[in-house]
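Figure S4 source data
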Amino acid sequence: MSAYIEVDYQFPAGVDAQRQAQAIAIGQTAGSWDARFQHREEQLRGHLAEVRAVHDLPEGRHLATIRFPAENVDGRMGSLLTMIFGKYSLAGPAKVMSIRLPEGYGQSCRFGLAGIREKLNVAERPLIMAIFKPALGLSAEDHAEILAEVAMAGLDIIKDDEILPDLPSAATLARWEACAPIIEARRDRTGRDLLYAMNLSGDARQVQDLARQLVARGTNALLLNVLAYGFPMLEALAADPEVNVPIFAHPALAGAWCAAPDHGFAYAAILGTAMSCAGADAVLYPAHYGSLPFPEADEQAIVEALRARGVAPVPSAGVHPGMLGAILEDYGPEVILNAGTGIMDHPMGPSSGVLAFHEGLERWQEGASLKLSDLPAGPLRAAVEKWGAA
């Protein structure tokens, strides 16, 4: 039985959805042919896509479902995205809402949430992740000083800010060399690792070379701005036997790809389906109760797509301890909590920012209240007094 890829396209009011869907089905596959290729008729027709349905939506919109033969692509995100929306994305208003792929399509994550938990020896509770702040202007020694402050407080993961490339003032390899002894000391003292997801930058060859150099020197996680550097870059890293560490995918540029109502892709199609089928182990995206305007339905759809393939969901952007009740109600324990200012700008210091999350998690596990009026003095109460509660 042939395998197929199904894609839902949304068209705004005033667009002939049936006609445009048919244009996609033909123009994004085999196209048309004349009598010269009549002897190849059956073969060529086998590559054409099929419009399966066109449904009415509110406000005059329409949703068209198109089925593509999976044999039209090579199993990678580059050829898939080119087929389903490449040239047609220039043809007028249309938005890819969802992509349904054959089971096992693409590249599975090597670690995912389960593998990250195993590396950290944390089986049940949500994982706690911080971000180096300020994002720019720090030296390698500054990074080490910040890490030392949060490492012994029980942090699980820390990452570079995504806008920090391999700069001479704080070169990536130098940052690792400065931070590695702190991670080793934490491991010796507690018996648990701390992941440092180091940001990759450069051209394609430099990115892969840097990743290999970092891992060879002991780096235990990586961060990639996938939409800036490309899905093929993520696929190459995730398949590289010399880069055998978890890869955290950052959503930088996702708004440019996904935020327009009648153009581009739905967030879940890119940050959920595409990321999880290109080898990401964990994917960051805005929490709908965070500092960026983000629809709750989009967040839920991203999480569903990630969890279907074992990839760790990482709600981000403005996350702080006062959000724990809302986040845990939505996610349960199977989540990585990513906080930048919510840890680094804690009024009692970054280590107290980590402790505030742990205190909140313990209260949640015990069924205790997370309301400000019920909190004793300490890191969690100080955080909720500063940032409030979601």
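Figure S5 source data
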Amino acid sequence: MHDTRNLPVEVRPDRTLRVKIIDACGLACSFCHNEGTPVAVENRDREPSQYTGDPGASGRVSIYLRTNGADFLPARIAADSDFALALAAVRGSLPTNEVHFTGGEPTLHPDLPGLITIARRLGLTVGLTSNGENGAAVMPDCAAAGLDRVNLSVFGTTPEELAAVQAPRLANTPLAARKLAALDATIEAATAHGIKVSANIVIPDRDHVERVLRIIERHGRTVVVRMLVSLEDDGASLTAMREVVDHLGGVPDRRIVTAGASDQRVRYRLPGGRTLYAKSIRPVRLTTTCATCRFNNADDCHEGYYGVRMYRARNGPFMIGVCIQRMDLCQPLGQFVMSRTCREVAAFREDETARLMRLHAAPAVIP
């Protein structure tokens, strides 16, 4: 694999707000962090001290819940004036030009186009992360509302592969085959309506190399493929990424770094003009908030400081979080916009942008 240290660097300041719009999901992946929140259907009759991230009847998990201190259940966010005011409040306290919808599974939201419309009216670009299970039904209306792109999480190319990472209740190949057909239909519907599509593939180790190569062969001509390092990587994930790139004959031509967040990626040009991205985590920490965190070490902090997330607490306010491993840091929106944490995030974004531009002498910055 080529040395990427001397590549041209593009610095992109973090201006994104992630919003968990729904908790429901039709998959039950064994590695799901569920944006740090409890699985609502499994915990609706429990007190916060009794919340569990272990699989129940739904089979769904929230892998950080045992240690992250989450004390609220996520509610479905309605496409109403409350949501518009919440977005405006965040944008007024932190420079924000993009909102990214997550879940659960965003395409199951009954008024996803309405949410997109609200964000677009505020001048925000809109993206979402999806497993594609309901995308074909909603992509036309989402495109009309102004959806810019969809990042599809791809967990397998065969029914057997997808079933292997599901809870026992969903680990059957006929169901997995239907889910994969839905994913293909989502890709077709999104591209047909002018929505940019990328396929995100977590690659934990070398056992997944063949799977990733099949995904690239199957989807790489119509979507942008991005390999993602496992959040619990011990080196095996990066090694597997290198094997994929070497097998495909990829040549790196650019590093893209998000200033003020832990996201970074390397762009590779493949033979035939295709593009492949390898995404990894920078060891980025908020200066004050992360300094005394018990997870602030190379082994326990899996995501670094990844950015700001919005939730709606069930029967409660909008909440703002800065770490899925430390949900105890979440604050009600009204408190957050006046808080030291908000000012810290704003300053950190600007300081990192200036530092990285000086370090890399990077003239190309996307505001």
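The mean pLDDT is 91. The first strand starts at residue 9 and ends at 13.
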